[in-house]
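Project standup — Tuesday

K.O.: blocked on the structure for the chain from last sprint. Re-posting the sequence here as requested.
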Amino acid sequence: MKEQLSLAVKPRSAKGKGACRRMRVESLVPGIFYDSKGTNIPVMVSELPLTKLREKTGSSHVFDLVIETEDGPQTRPSLIWNVQRHPTKPRITHVDFYGVDLDKVIRVSVPVVVTGKAKGVVLGGKLEIFRDMIEVECLPLSVPDQVTIDVTQLDPNENISVADLVLPEGVKAVFDDDYAVVGVVYETEEEDKGAATS
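H.V.: unblocked you, prediction finished:
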């Protein structure tokens, strides 16, 4: 079972560019908590704990957002929905959190990880990853860390499509068209000659 991470934030009353600049000077990141019920709470969070949490959760894993209010802490299962970064400095300038219902299916994107050496590559082909992220639907606590694809049996000019993926129980890929995720591209002699003369 995955470790349930948490992040403490505080409500903020000060708004506007000036207030946000002052927060950033103190290594605080302004943000907003949203949920499907229309809740909209301006918050602020220390940058270092936020950065460490994001390294572990990305934008697809649920954690406990602990909002420290005057009436005591309120815990909301949440996702990091959006992060804005400084254009030149390695720091976060704004963050959006999205509260989720643990009993309702959500739609998120998870990374694709390829394992094995394709037969087609041994025969001179080139492995191409067409999609490095896959959109899936599942309950919030069932979001996989990644979608692992074994390409060992791929021959030249063969693909593995999204419909072929073996996903964990309760996880479903979202797609309208059955697109290729990874494949072995085999260049012909004509293509090689064209590349050499271009």
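K.O.: great, moving the ticket to review. The domain at 6-99 is CATH 2.40.240.10 (Ribosomal Protein L25; Chain P). The radius of gyration is 22 Å.
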